[in-house]
Amino acid sequence: MKGENCHAIILSTLNYGESDRIVSLFTLEYGRLRGFAKSARASRKRFGGQLEPTNRIEVSLSLKEDGLSRIERIEQSSCYPELHEQLESLALALYACELVEALTPEGHPLPRLFRLLSTLLDHLAAQTGSAADRRFFEINVLNILGYRPVLDTALLQPLSDCMKTGSFGKIRFTDTELDAAGRLLDRQISSHCTHPLKSRTFLENLN
What we know:
Blueprint: E1 2-16, E2 20-27, E3 31-37, H1 44-47, E4 56-63, E5 69-78, H2 87-103, H3 111-126, H4 131-145, H5 157-162, H6 175-192, H7 198-205
Parallel strand pairs: 3-5
Antiparallel strand pairs: 1-2, 1-4, 2-3, 4-5
Helix pairs in contact: 2-3, 2-4, 2-7, 3-4, 4-6
C-alpha cells in the first residue's frame, strides 16, 4: 500500500463488525474508492463522526489497487450542517451521492464530476433543493460519463442549456419542460443502473 492525501466526498457508509466502517469515497485524484476505517464507530478522536454521506473531506489513505484502501485519518472536513435543516436539500444530496456511486467505475478519476458534485453540495447548503436542480445535475452527470441522451425536441432545450453552464439555478424550466426532462432522464438513468436507488424513492416521496 502507498500513502496518499486525497480530496474526497463520502458517498455512502456501511457498518462492519462491532466498531469498523466501510466507506465509499469519491475522490478528486482517483475517482471512486472503497475505504476501511478501523474503529470508526468507537474512536471519536480519530474520525470525530466525520465519516458520513455528503461530507467533503481531506483524507489520508493507504491506497490498495484491489479491494479496500485503509482510511488513516481525516485532515479536514466540510460537513454541511445546513443540509440537515432542509429535508428537500438533504434528500437531493443523498440521491446525488448514490447516483454517482451507482454510475461511476471504481478507480477512474473524473475531476469534472467531482467538481459538479461539490458544486451541488455547496448550492444545497445555501438554499433548498428543487426539481430543476435535480435535472441539472442528472443531465450533466450523464454527459460527463458519456451517457447523454438525444435531446431532439424543443421541450428538451433547457437540458441542452444545462450543459452550457456550471451554475445551478440559472436554467429555468416550465412545468411542461420539467415533466419532459424528468421522463427522459429517469429512463436513461434506470437503463444504466443495476439496481433501484433507495434515495430516489425517498426524494420522490417528498414531492
